[in-house]
Amino acid sequence: MVLDETGKMNGTSGAKGRPLALRTHLRQNRDMTRGERTARIIEISHALGFDLCGVAPAEDYPELAHLIEWLERGHAGEMRYLNDERRRSPSLVMQGARSVIVFGMNYNTALPSSIDAPEAIASQAGPQGWISRYAWGDDYHKVFGDRLESVIKNLRDEFRDLPESFDARAYVDAGPIVERVAAKYAGLGWLAKNTCLINEELGSWLFLGAIVTTLDLAASLGPVETPAPDLCGNCTLCIDACPTGALIEPYAMDARRCISYLTIELRGSIPEEFREPMGRHVFGCDICQDVCPWNRKAPSTRLQNFMPRLHRSDSGQPASLFSPELEWLISLTEEEFREVFRGSPVKRTKWRGLVRNACIAIGNSGLRSHEPRYPEIRNRLSQLAVSGDAILAEHALWALNRLVDRERS
Hints:
The protein has about 400 residues and is of the alpha+beta class.
């Protein structure tokens, strides 16, 4: 016999010593239809804080058929990990894969966009850089990944009495799954001209992750349903706004020209043709999303994880990763970089990459000798220009020459 919370006898123990109520619950889960399983997973995802969730079949998606051609054109640059054969189909990721559960999490904040921020910070001392919105807070790989692991744990509890066992593996922008394409076939949005996924209600400020599983689930889109219609229409704002021309045509990007690639993935010297168009970007770029009409009314996240981190500036005053001071960035030591950006997406560019990018931003800043922090910044650039690091020396010298040329003009 078993006791309820009042201490009274309540039902009998059955097979394996399970209470009758629990046996009924497990039997119900075992007998769930494919559609009921999907509905339960979506319910679990919302309880764990995800904004979007949908299921796509683990099969070949038409967009992935163009991946080989895109790679052969060299558009991936130095991102050799994109050559992984498994990226051509989620069915190759896991033996017996049947379903891809796709999740979306909003990371937008109420702070100004990169195209509005220069006016908003005009009163601050010294030139400012720009870090992409997604990297202001904690590393989304960790925040998102932990929640996906919680989903898997819930699935194992929820479906532990199924007659067949199942495998499940989570990915957050660090595996062979092309999440945005899977998200389209999970009914979460459409693939826009800037190659981002856009959700009609949330816009494109979305982190995406996926769980590939052998669970037999009903797809979010029914047999006769099609993915969300492409609502970009005749708009070309994202293409027109890209300063480096990375969007070579609608729905196609040459990553080698993208500011995000140049400031994060490229390890060596940044080609001179792209330095001036990079403007003040030191990590990533938001321009194509900032100009998108679907983001004008995008809601803001309530998660503190994605709010700008605070740090102590050179003056000792609290400052944040929203429009950080360029003088502070070029003055960071490797040890300080590791400390400030521990658990941050910015660590991917490494210390040298961030300082290199900040040098370019200073060269583009329009800073003049009568303006605040000019002597200190020029002195630091001079130190970097004669350092033993060839990459930093090259970019610091480029920035110095820009400052000198401006004084002569």
